[in-house]
Amino acid sequence: MTGVFEPFHFAFFQHGLEAAVMAGALCGLIGVYITLRGMSYIGHGLSHSIFGGFAAAPLLGVNVLLGAGVWGLLSALAITAVTRRSRIGADAAIGVITTASFALGVALLSKFGSRGANFDALLFGSILGVGTSDLLLLVFSLLLAITVFTVLYRRLLFATFDPEVADVSGVDVKRMDAVLMSVLSLSILATLTIIGVTLVAATLVIPAVVARMLTDSFSRMLWLSSILGALCGGIGMYASYDLDIPSGTTIVLTNALVFVVVLAITGGRQLRRTAGMDDHSDAPAQVAVAA
C-alpha cells in the first residue's frame, strides 16, 4: 500500500493532481455546449491558435499568459465573425484561422527560438510544469465558467439548441456566442500546461459525448460531464506518474477507455443532438419573457 500512496508525498504531484481534476471538470463543463453546437473541432483549433500566441508574446514584450489569452480570444471571435458574415462553415473557418496561427507560432519559434514557456510541455502536457500560477488560473477559470453558465443558463441553452428562434425572441445570440468563446479561450489557456496543445480537444469532447450516452437531460449532462472529466483527469494524472509518460496522454487515454466502455454498454443509443430538450421545452418561452 505504501507504493500506492507514494506519489502523494511529492508536492509537484499534489499540484499536478489538483490541476488535472480542475482541468477535467472545466473541460467537461464547457464541452457540453461545444459538442451540442456541433463545434467539437474548435477546442483543437483554439489550442493550436493559442500556441501561436505563446510564441509571439515574448517577442512582443508581453506577458506570455496575457498575450496567449488575448490571441486565443481574438481567434475565437474571428471564427465567429467569419462564420456569421460569409458562407464559410464553422469547421472551415476554424481550420483556416487556427492552423494559420499555429503555423505562425512554429515559424516564430524556428526563426527566433523558444523564449519563456516550455513548449514541449505545452504540446503534450507535463506533470512537472504545474505551478502555483497554473492552479490559480484554473481556479479562476472554473469559478468563472460556473458563474457564467449559472447566470446565463437559459439564454445559453436557447442559443445552443435554436439560435435562429432565440435571436428573434430577444436573446442576443451574438453576445452569447462571444461569452462562450471567451470562457472557452480562457479555459484552454488554463489547461494547456496539464493537457497540452495536441490533446486538449479530446478532454473537451469525450466527457460530454459520454454524458450524452448516459442521459437525455441537458442539466444532468452538465454535471455528469464535469464529474467524468474530473475523475478521468485525476486517474490519468496518477497513471502519468506511474507510467512516466506525459500527463496529457494518460488523461486522454483514460477518457477514451471510459468512452469505449460506455459505448459498449449503451450502444450509443442516446447519442443525439436533441438531448435535454424534453425536460426544458419551456426554456424558449421563459427566455423570451425574461429578455
In short, what is this structure?
With 291 residues, the chain is an all-alpha fold. Helix content is 78%, strand content 0%.
Question: Could you name the key traits of this structure?
Answer:
single chain, about 290 residues, mainly alpha, ABC transporter involved in vitamin B12 uptake, BtuC, 14 helices
Helical residue percent?
over 70%
Largest sheet at a glance? Answer: none
CATH topology: ABC transporter involved in vitamin B12 uptake, BtuC
- What is the domain total for the residues? 1
Shape: globular
Task: State the secondary-structure class.
Answer: mainly alpha
Assembly status = single chain
Q: What does it look like?
A:
- The structure is a single chain.
- The chain has 14 helices and no strands.
- It is mainly α.
- It has a single domain (14-290), classed as ABC transporter involved in vitamin B12 uptake, BtuC.
- The chain is globular.
- It starts with a helix and ends with a helix.
- 47% of the residues are buried.
- Mean pLDDT is 78; it is low at 272-291.
Topology:
Layout (H helix, E strand, L loop, with lengths): L1 H4 L5 H26 L4 H19 L4 H22 L4 H23 L6 H6 L7 H20 L1 H9 L1 H6 L4 H23 L4 H15 L3 H26 L3 H20 L16 H8 L1
